[in-house]
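We examine the record.

___
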Amino acid sequence: MEMEKIVTQNVIETDRFVLRPLRRSDMGLIEMYAGDKRVACNTQTIPHPLPPGTIEAFVARAMADERDEDVWAMDGHKAGGSEVMGLISLTRMDRNQSEVGYWVAPHFWNTGLASDAVQALVEANPMGNATMFASVFQDNPASARVLTHCGFEYLGDAEGFAVARDAAVPTWTYSRKL
C-alpha cells in the first residue's frame, strides 16, 4: 500500500481544549500517562511496562510526513489545564473510512473529556471521511458510552489483542456515518 504524503494536520479548537498535532516536548507527559497500567490495559497497542524508546518512536511516527495515522494531543493549556490530557487519533482505512482511537489520562477520567474530544473530531472530520469506526474493550463500558454519546452505533462483537494484557480481549465495534 502506497502512502500519500501528508503536509499538515488540522488543529481543532474547542472551548475546553485544543486538539493539536504532537510535538517532541509532549513525550514526557505521554510517557507518564501511557506508562500507567490503567491506560495501557485499555488500549490494544500500548505495552506495559513501557520499553525504553517506545514513546519517542511513537511521537516520531506521529510527526512523520508520510503516515497512516494522525494523532492529536488533547491540550488544555489555553483553559489552564495540562498540555497533554490524553491522545486521540484517526487511522486511515480504505473506502473513505477511518478508525478513531483515544485514551485519557486517569486524572481526567469521568470529566467528559473523551466525549468532547471524539465529538470535536467527528464534527471537524479532518480526513473528510464518510464513516468513522471505533472499537472498545467490553470491560471498559465508559469508553463505549463515549462513542454512543457521540452518535456512534453498535455494529457487533469482535476481539482485539491487548499488548499490555498479552491476551485477546472481547471488543464492541461501533460506526458513525458522517
Summary: The mean pLDDT is 95. Strands lie at 12-13, 18-21, 69-75, 86-93, 97-104, 131-137, 153-162, 167-177.
